[in-house]
Design goal:
Layout (H helix, E strand, L loop, with lengths): L19 H11 L5 H7 L4 H8 L41 H17 L6 H11 L9 H14 L4 H9 L2 H6 L14 H10 L13 H10 L3 E4 L4 E4 L9 E2 L8 E2 L6 H5 L1 H10 L3 H14 L6 H17 L4 H9 L17 H13 L8 H17 L31 H12 L4 E3 L2 E3 L3 H5 L8 H12 L6 H12 L5 H15 L5 H19 L8
Antiparallel strand pairs: 1-2, 3-4, 5-6
Length: about 550
């Protein structure tokens, strides 16, 4: 595996005003791509100032997904929810497959239209961490689960863990709604709550807690069911194990007392279970490592553990598991801005598809044509799915392999099948585009070049596009190759004259097709080379 050189940089704050490249680095890791407008907005700020903005949740939650699928065909016409109305409050699961497709398209739409906030990227992180699957479960449960992820994404992790535990999609996914008092309570959620979601495993892969702890946790978690009509978890005392629950020395031999006569006290055992779990230092270390691998780099060597993971875990635990405190410290650290971290991650399929469109396409069909809009979003969902990341449906309870499978981790996103498909994605965006009748989703190179005030200068334009597309520095020879796409073997003024001629015609309201065709041809050659390099796959 190609490992980055070790850095000794720790979590001391990086205080200088960020360069344009550093702003792009921070935004590409915390958002889905770094558009020119986003970079321009933050240039001149320090990392702390930028994070103060990024850690602010959007002022209003997104509008819910719509019925975009009814066509008049009785097999797909939703008689309960009219076309263009939301299905999330319908109280039933008619046309569930259509609604799951609507939900997945909608979610991509939230990523594409994200505000200058880290919330959207954190929703994807927590979706992988608290892994659940939408299909073949209720689309309404999937949506309420997504709302719950958004509500807690930048909040308190202890509160988050409780809400996840009684979430209807999680209760279905890990059989929690079947868990009741008896000789053999269902251990699925009790095990994963500890092994994956909170405590984690030791460095050797063994669990620090015991099998008896799994069984005791399963007893605490008996009695939870689902109110299907209202898509929420409920507690039923008659199904709850009211005996005492004994835990091991790892949990200081804690006993959670049974409460045979009280539904309120019995339901409160979940709080006692979480308090016991969160009293261990393992929780903070597990979460910090997972966030580090997702956002910074997937190799955690001894130096990184000592200088970054351990002190961050201490801060996280001391903050009573405040997620913003953890993220603020990590993304303003000297470690995050060390040169060894730049371009160190391979973009996930979702990051690739959404960021490419945000950075280079610039527009989707308008909300006034919601069917075309949903179709466009769904096209980008399909791109990511075909590349190995099915949004809403990770392969198992541990999430996508690239975030936990040692030693390759993110390198698993790239193989002999997916790499050509990644390049083909760019080829389609630069060619016919993806259909969303009556629209097409494609890169218009003239529109991208027009974003830059110095587009007439081939040297400045190439430099600006490299900053937009890449996080790794490029060689002089590479830059010269990009520039030659614009000017060929002649002087720089060849491109400058051509671009200024085009701009002058636009200002005069003239549509000179030969000039437009020549400018487009030159820019297409540049973009084909720029976006089909390995560097474009890195963040």
């Amino acid at each position: 595996m190609n490992k980055r050189p070790t850095t000794t940089a720790g979590i001391a704050q990086y205080t200088p005003v960020l360069t344009r490249d550093q702003v792009a680095h921070l935004l590409k890791r915390t958002m889905f791509g770094a558009t020119k407008a986003d970079v321009d907005f933050f240039v001149g700020m320090t990392a702390a100032q930028i994070m103060a903005v990024l850690l602010t949740s959007p002022p209003t939650p997104p509008s819910p997904p719509l019925n975009n699928y009814s066509t008049g065909d009785p097999t797909v016409w939703d008689v309960v929810v009219p076309l263009g109305q939301t299905w999330v409050n319908s109280g039933n699961d008619n046309f569930n497959d259509n609604r799951i497709a609507s939900y997945k398209a909608w979610w991509i739409g939230q990523m594409y239209s994200q505000t200058r906030s880290m919330q959207e990227k954190m929703v994807l992180f927590w979706h992988n961490h608290f892994s659940t699957q939408a299909a073949p479960n209720s689309a309404r449960y999937a949506y309420t689960h997504n709302v719950m992820l958004r509500r807690n994404a930048l909040g308190n992790f202890r509160t988050f863990a409780k809400e996840v535990s009684v979430d209807p999609l999680m209760l279905v996914f890990l059989n929690g709604y079947l868990n009741q008092a008896g000789p053999d309570p269902d251990e699925n959620y009790g095990r994963e709550l500890q092994e994956l979601f909170t405590v984690g495993k030791n460095a050797d892969g063994a669990s620090p807690f015991s099998e008896a702890d799994v069984k005791a946790a399963a007893k605490v978690l008996t009695g939870y069911q689902i109110d299907a009509k209202n898509a929420k978890g409920i507690f039923t005392l008659s199904r709850h194990d009211t005996t005492d629950k004994q835990f091991s020395a790892f949990y200081s031999n804690t006993v959670i007392k049974g409460n045979p006569g009280s539904a309120t006290a019995s339901a409160g055992e979940l709080d006692q279970l979480l308090d016991m779990i969160f009293a261990t230092p393992n929780v903070a270390i597990n979460i910090v490592q997972n966030i580090y691998r997702f956002f910074v780099y997937y190799v955690i060597d001894d130096t990184t553990f000592a200088n970054v993971i351990q002190p961050l875990a201490t801060i996280f635990q001391n903050s009573k598991y405040d997620i913003k405190t953890l993220l603020q410290t990590l993304f303003t650290s000297q470690h995050f801005f060390d040169a060894s971290i730049l371009g160190a991650l391979i973009k996930s399929p979702i990051e690739l598809s959404v960021s490419a469109v945000r950075e280079f396409v610039g527009s989707f069909p308008p909300a006034s044509n919601f069917q075309a809009q949903y179709n466009a979003w769904y096209q980008m969902y399909l791109v990511a799915q075909n590349l190995g990341q099915d949004l809403g449906d990770p392969p198992n309870v541990a999430g996508w392999l690239a975030y936990y499978q040692a030693p390759s981790y993110h390198e698993l996103w790239i193989n002999t099948v997916t790499l050509p498909q990644r390049f083909n994605f760019v080829k389609i965006l630069l060619g016919t585009g993806y259909p969303a009748a009556p629209y097409h989703i494609f890169i218009a190179p003239i529109s991208v070049a027009s974003l830059f005030t110095d587009a007439a200068d081939p040297n400045a334009l190439v430099a600006d596009l490299v900053t937009l597309a890449y996080r790794l520095p490029v060689t002089a020879n590479f830059t010269a190759t990009l520039k030659s796409a614009l000017v060929g073997q002649v002087a720089d003024h060849y491109w400058s004259d051509l671009w200024n001629k085009y701009i002058g015609q636009v200002a005069a309201g003239i549509e000179d097709q030969p000039t437009i065709a020549l400018v487009t041809s030159k820019l297409n050659a540049l973009f084909q080379f720029l976006l089909n390099q390995p560097e474009f796959q890195l963040s």
